[in-house]
Amino acid sequence: MTGELAASLVDYFSRLERLAACGKTLCAGRVIESGYEGARDEHRAGAWLAGKTGESVGRARRALETARKMQQLPDVEAAYRKGELSSDQVAEIADAAGQAPSAQRALLEVARSATLGGLRREADRVRAAARSATDADEREERVRKNRSLRSFTDADGALRIELSLTPGDGRRTLDAIEAEAKLVFDEARTAGRAEPYRAHLADSFVRLVTGAGADSGRGPRRYSTLLRVDLAALRRGGLEPGEVCEIPGAGPVSLRQARQLMGDTFLKLVIADGVDVRTVCHPGRTVAAVIDTALEERDPECVVPGCTNTFLLERDHWQVAYGDDGPTCLDNLARICHRHHLDKTHRGYRLEGGPGKWRWVAPQVPTNRPDEVLSG
Ligand SMILES: [Zn+2]
To answer: Could you tell me the CA-to-CA distances from 367 to 36, 66, 363 in Å, in that order?
Structure first.
């Protein structure tokens, strides 16, 4: 079998899998609805379906929940029946659209063009906008009250630390660790050590918490956290459908928490409705802070489809190269990971499409790849 044929068969079987999952989910929903013996209450229904399919009870319950919600979501059901959605995608859309049915078409559109991670972020936004301000405050207060740090030793003898934080504190902590990780990465590269990103993050965490980072002579790395909010919502003091208040990489937060974060000097604010950043261009390679912030917010992960890398993202002049007088403005910039940047610079790969519809185009004739520091 040729690689090309195998690839088209993967497409074919994926669609078949999605259609089969749709048929299974909708029929299972009908079983519950009919009052079928053995699947009467919610608890037994999950166990019954798990027994049939060999999946976990949790997954089975989620499928039944999706089937139930879909009764109110005709557009989602139609797309699911056509084999356009995977089980993960449909569960995400049904859950969010179940709280805001008017959002179903927009979510389907996102599912067509974005990764599952991108769809989750959009679904989080829809859910956040559907919550009342009181609900959002109560939810955040619950998270804050339950904040915790616990540790245990696992079977391999590693000490594991588990942290539960508010989105604001959590994102700030990660931003600080990631900023330090850039130093750790540079040191590893200089020393010729190729280690995975998660190892650099672990070293950074230890250095920051124990204060060892400051001993390097350069002091801890500066970092900042993004907050994206609609100006109108901020003025009004409440979110309306379609408006956002979120920390990219952590999810939606209440306006109350947003105001608290605004007192923080490390905060970079993206006003969703403010200056149109698309019109701001900078003549040189230096990226104006406003463009940089908008870019960070627009491309939270490497834009190459299927790549979810968030580490050491590089600004790429994707339409017109900087060397060919490409402008340093938002429309000509995209964030891609180190590995894809090497592929694009040295191996003839091209980035096409634009935000929301990126395509990664392989070169016609493969060229040799230079030695890479980053591996795995
Ligand atoms: Zn990438």
So the answer is: 61, 47, 8
